[in-house]
Structure formats: C-alpha cells, structure tokens
Amino acid sequence: MARSAWNCSLKSQEAPFHRVEPPMRWTIPGAAFLAFVGCGGAETAQPETPTSDGQSLVQAVSLMCRADTLSGAAAEEDPLDRSAKRDQWLSDNVKNPDAIYFRTIARTRAPKEHAALLREQAAELGVRLCPEADRIENDEL
Fold first, then answer.
1. Which ranges of 72-129 does DSSP label H, i.e. alpha helix?
2. Using N-to-C axis directions, what is the helix angle for 79-93 and 57-65, rounded to 10°?
3. Per-residue pLDDT tens for 76-93?
4. Cβ(64)–Cβ(94) under 8 Å?
5. 107 — phi, psi (to 5°)?
C-alpha cells in the first residue's frame, strides 16, 4: 500500500479512493481574506469621534499638517516670528484633546522623529498630504 503526499487515504482495492485536499491550500488565502475583512480593509480610516467642540482627531491632524499655510507663518521672514505665529495658531485652532496630547509629545522629539510621528499619525487617519512634516524635518524651527 502506497501513500500519496496529497492523499491521506490509503490506496487499496477494498477502500474507494478519496481525495483529501492539502491542509494549507485554502488556509493562507482564507486567513488573509478574513484578516482583511475583519480589519475593515486597508483603505479605511479610523472613525471620526468629534470632541465637545466638534473637532475630530482627523480634522485636528489635517490642520496640523497644513499649519504653515493656514496660519500665514510661511510668509514670515524671521524664523522665530514664523515659529511663534505657527505655534500660536495651532494653540488657537487645534482643540481635539488627542491631537493636543500628540502635539505635546511630538514636540519633545528630535525634528526627524517629530516629522516621522506626524507623517505616521496622518497616514493612520487617512490624511494624505502633510507638508508640515517636511517643514519640521528640513526647517531650522
């Protein structure tokens, strides 16, 4: 009696031939599909949960990513004035507590790490462009 690698039943004249599928044939694609469906898909952003003043984390991070443009700080010549104007604008306009916490923590990091954290947070929330991260990484202030 011979055993086949893909057939777990024994071939004999008394027993009918039953084909048994390889155990890993559908396991990996099935698990990948279930993980994709179970996680909501790769393209789905986190749901927006507005704070008491109505600003969601996505909206706050979007503002943070465009702070130079929205605050008018990009037009300032002096780097210290530009930084002060941007920081004041962010303090006045970013109201989501999670975004404020994130901003506080990120500001304590080195510029490259701060930029990477902002890019990562923006990507997780579905904010596609974040020019502020580039500015943080390349600017002096």
1. 79-93, 97-107, 111-125
2. 170
3. 999 899 999 999 999 999
4. yes
5. -65, -20
